[in-house]
Each structure stands twice: as structure tokens, then as C-alpha cells.
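Sync notes, pocket subgroup
Present: LS, DG
LS reminded everyone that the earlier model was apo-only. Rerun requested with zinc ion included. Inputs:
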Amino acid sequence: MKQVFFFILLLSTPAVSQIVAYPKNYFRSPVAIQIALSGNFGELRPNHFHTGIDITTKGVEGVPIKASAEGYVSKIKISHWGYGKVIYVTHPNGFTTVYGHLSDFNTAIAEFIKTSQYAKESYEIELLLTPDQFNVKQGEVIAYSGNTGGSGGPHLHFEIRDTKTEEAINPLLFSMPVKDNVAPTLFSLLVCPANTSSIVNGTNGIHKFSLIKSENEYILQNPKDSIIIFGQVGFAIEANDKENIPTGKNGVYGIKLECDNKIIYASQLERMPFDKSRYINSFIDFAEMRKNNHFYMRSFVLPNNQLPIYDSLVENGYCYFKTEGMHQFKYSISDAFGNSSTLRFKVYAKAKQPTYKNVQTNLDPFSNVILWDTTTVFEESSFRLEIPAGAVYKNELFKHSVIPAKVKELSPKVFMDEMIPLQKPCTLSVYANVPENLQSRAVLAMTNKNGNKICIGGTWEENKITAEIKEFGNFTIVIDSTGPKITTENFDLKGIKQTSLTSLKFIRFTISDNFSGIAFYKASIDGKWVLMQYEPKKKYIWYNFDEHCKPGNHELVLEVIDKVGNKTTYKKSFNR
Ligand SMILES: [Zn+2]
């Protein structure tokens, strides 16, 4: 098995990143305020690398956002999640800048969007524009900062993309006005056996070493610590970076690992194609993130890792020494401004296999193995799971268990090892005796870390429900027969009906759903569609009174439908 594993490693040839000279002083800051970064490019996030810089707006929304350079508005998108309200400006020099989580746009652009929303009868919208529609000059106010979409607080998300390939490029390589002479901080080192017969300090499990800064370099914190290995091993490091204005912990840029003065691994977070970003699940130690919320960056490359961030790889970053002896290792961790921190440590390699404690489960080639490069199907009496080729990053042992449905229960519970990360969705079918009249309200659910059930969805066919799953976890079937809840927010308070809404500039509701989530909403006044803005994070939905509600008596109807089709309708007669 060891040979097979080693052979697979040799097949992997990640793309080499290119050194490109990016234009300096072409793009100005998109804000007039001093840039402080609450997030930088390449920062490690669940299932993706951060593809821009997050500029703090001092806790407020409405900061004017300026075009970073001259160009034309090429795209506008409004969505409940992701970038929220976002605008793209394409520049004549081959780059496009992106401004996300906005609260609003300049008057001309806002009017254009509203007209398009009424034409499509949808708040969510994506508009692709031609160069003759909205030309912008450098520094022109195009929008206002906000907190829309998947944003955890007011800030501007700013990106620079290659217009042709749409790859995101590190904005700090374009001389943005950010001051940084602070070198990255290093926390901890992982020594990882590459397979079940590799040994580190007497076991075939992962070993962790805390780091400390001594004079100008990092060393292992405990001077008595030694690293004794046998067989093939890889290393991973936990580190972060700060700028001169301390705003939190941002990501590092470059990682270089040398063994006996020879580079065996180097990576730079210079560019990121969006379709490769999820390979972060093989760049980090996924189990450490899941269990302890620590992001260890591996300096070895798994067979199914297509990140285009590597160069100088020797044996994919793994070490294997045939003869006995001591070896010197040096990590250099840098930020985008060239500030660098160094870690030195020694490794003693054994030539003969020492006695060791087995803490890993051996991969048994004849059962329960997921091969990364072929489609694997597991079928049992209560479930069927299809894992497509390329869904996992290396060969994995599929640890799972099933609790069959008890007498009064509808569904079995299927448990899968959630420490195995996924690159591609897998198809899961769960067999259950759900009566036909309940099937339209029955969905597959996954239990998350906090014990809450999350709706996955799914379609029924005879006695099974089938859904795409993006991660392994604990699955069961849940019936949702409760409609969404609609609550009035700034009128009809305490249940007292209000017939005149003349004094209100807008009407706001909160909408929520007990389980499956809101799939659709629609509001009309006197039977005609009106634009409601919806922020699912805050549960707010509101209509700003405008020319679509002239003075007089009206009836407002708000319909909200959840993902399994339960519907709630709210009606109100009013005058204004
Ligand atoms: Zn961001």
C-alpha cells in the first residue's frame, strides 16, 4: 500500500505560479479614509481563500466608494448572500476592480438598477453592462459602503481581477496605500507522517510543536523537544500577519521550506482562480480546523490539489531520508510587503523502522476506501453514497455508521467521518418509510457542530430521498410542515392596527423560517409587484415608499414561501 501511495504522489504536478509585474500607482484607494485591513488576500477561510482586501469603515455604513481608476461599470449584482450589493469596474489596462457588501450606489446607477429590478420583478439581480453605459473617472463616487450579503460587519470588500481570466490578484501587489513593516507571527509546527508506516517520535500520528521567538528567529518553544522521524513526513505551520495599523489577524503571503539549504517547497498567494479556491481544504490541515479552529498551512501537496500557488517543489514537499542522520530545516514566512519571519528546527532521521504505537487506521485496499481519482459508491440497506472522482484530496478510509430507524421514527441516521474534506459534491440517497403525503415536506438534514439541523433539501423517488452533499457529516430526514413567520417591525406595533402609514418612509417586516429556510418572497400593492429589499442575515425585509405607492387607499400583500413549499401570507389595508 505504501508503494501505491507514493506512486500517486508522483503523479501530482501542480501548476507553477508566474512572477508578473503589476502596475504600481495605477489604482488609488477606493476610500478617502486611511486604509485599515480587517482581512487580506489569501486569508484562510472555511472552504475558500479570501480573494480581496477588507477595508474597515470604522463600524459605519455609507462611506463613499470611489472608482479606483478610470473605466466603465461592467457588472452589477445584488444577492442575499455572497458579495451582497456589488459593482465591477473594468479598466483599460486589463484589470477589473470589484467593490462588495455595499449599502447603495450613486444616484444614476441606483436608478438604473431599480428600473431593472422592476422589469425583472426581483430584488436579486445580475446586470452585465457594455462600455457605453456608465463610464467612470478615477476617484468618482460610484457607491456607498455597507454590510450586505455574507459580511460580518460594515466594511468594503475590494478586489482586483485579471479581466480576461477573472482570477483574483493580490491587491497589495499594486502599491495600495497600506503601511506594513510587521513580519508574520509564527505559532506552531505540525509534523505529519505521510502514511501509516511513517513514524514521528514513536507514533504514526501528527505531532504539534509550539514555537517561540528567540532573538530574530523562531525556534521550538521547548528546548528539550526533538523531532525523530522514520519514512516519509511532511510539515505544516500556523502563522498570521498584521499591518502597521493593527486590525486583527490577517493571512501570510509566501511560505518557503528549506532542508539542508535546499528549497523543497515554496508557495505564494499572488493569484487565485475562483474554481480552485476550495482546494484550500487540502492546503490546510482540515481536521485541525474542524476540531480546534486552527489553520495549519501544509508545505506538502496532496495528490488532488490543483492550487496554482506552488513552485520549487521537491517530492511535493515531503521529506524522506534513506540514511540515518540530523537535518537542518528552515521555514521563511513572508507577507506581501516582503517582511519575513524565520523558523529553524532540526530533524533526526532514522534509517531503520523503530518500534512505534499505531494511532492511525490502516487503509485496507479491499473495503471502505475512497480512491481520490475514481468514482466510489457505497451502498448499504439504508443509504447509497456516490463520491465522484476528484472529490477527495487523497485516498481516504470511509469511516461511517448507521443507526436504523426505530419503530416510530421515519428515518435512519447516517454518520460519516466529517474530518474528510470534500472538493466536489457527492450524491447521497437515504432510504426511509416516509408516507407519501409527507414526502413533499420531508428533506434531508445535516446536524452541524452545534447540534442544529441544517436543511440540505432533496428529491423523493419511491422510498428514498436524494440530495447533493458538500461535506460529510451526520444526516437524517426531517419533516417541515410549518410556514415562515412574518412580523411587522415599524408599524402595527403591539398588535394595534394602524390604518394610516402617511408618516412612514418605509415599511419593514422580519421574516424567518423554523427549518428549511426562505426560498421565495413577493410583495404587491394593489396587485402590482413592489421592490422589497431583503437582508436574510438580519431577517429584515422592507419597502421604501416611492412612486409605486401614490396617495390614497391601498392593499399590501406579502407572501413568503419556505424551501419545501409552506406558504405564509400577510395582508394589510392602509392609506397614505
Ligand atoms: Zn472580504
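DG: Confidence is low (pLDDT under 50) at residues 1-18.
LS: The pocket of zinc ion is lined by residues 39, 50, 52, 54, 157 (CB under 6 Å).
Action: DG to write up.
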